[in-house]
Request: fold
Amino acid sequence: MTHTKESRQQLRQQLRQARRSLSTTEQANAAKHLVKQFQDNLQPLLINSPSPKKVALYLANDGEICPQYLCEFFWQSKIQTYLPVIDNQELKFAVYTESSQWQSNQYGIKEPVATEYLSPHDLDLVFLPLVGFDKQGGRLGMGGGFYDRTFANKKVHEEPLLIGLAHNCQQVDELPIESWDVPLQAILTPSSFIETKT
Ligand SMILES: Nc1nc2c(c(=O)[nH]1)N(C=O)[C@@H](CNc1ccc(C(=O)N[C@@H](CCC(=O)O)C(=O)O)cc1)CN2
Ligand SMILES: Nc1ncnc2c1ncn2[C@@H]1O[C@H](COP(=O)(O)OP(=O)(O)OP(=O)(O)O)[C@@H](O)[C@H]1O
Reply:
């Protein structure tokens, strides 16, 4: 498929507008249903495991589906939770607890203040924010390339599992994909768990 940087940018604007248009009630319901979808589809992977699992999520921004209820479930389940911290065009991951201290990155998104960071490859699972997705595992992000750079050298079957979190309105038939786009292994939405063929 031929596509231009402009068409990707146009799609990004449309999909960002769609998620920002959701009401507060719709956002809260979506976030709650996400936990149910997680419990039905992914929980066995993280809970019935001999060693504590390490999971990255994000703080919702710009209408993104909010992982906070999911995070509270993880805290209760002794699953270690991490947040991304921008470092030199890539992401590193800082532990996220109820007593985290905060600083803001250049986009105004809060990041935990930390002295130690986890290497991205030591995570078991990463829940990625996204602007758009397709069921083939294509992901359109905010345009910084941060997740793509961070996981550029990851082989598909190596850890961590990369799973996108999205509102239903963020699904498209087929995204214009670039060579550097890192594929998602699955996408969790308030109404479904979509496993891709990656
Ligand atoms: N919640 C969340 N955290 C995240 C990401 C994300 O997508 N969502 N990121 C995923 O990689 C990184 C931040 N990436 C971002 C990239 C662009 C913009 C943004 O708002 N861009 C503005 C232009 C700002 C400018 O030019 O300085 C815009 O497009 O309006 C925000 C976050 C790390 N943390
Ligand atoms: N592995 C990589 N190495 C170098 N540059 C990269 C890499 N991956 C992406 N980029 C650069 O990052 C820029 C943004 O990429 P893209 O539009 O795919 O970001 P995105 O997936 O929307 O953003 P994000 O992952 O931050 O949510 C592109 O111009 C691309 O050249």
In short: The mean pLDDT is 95.
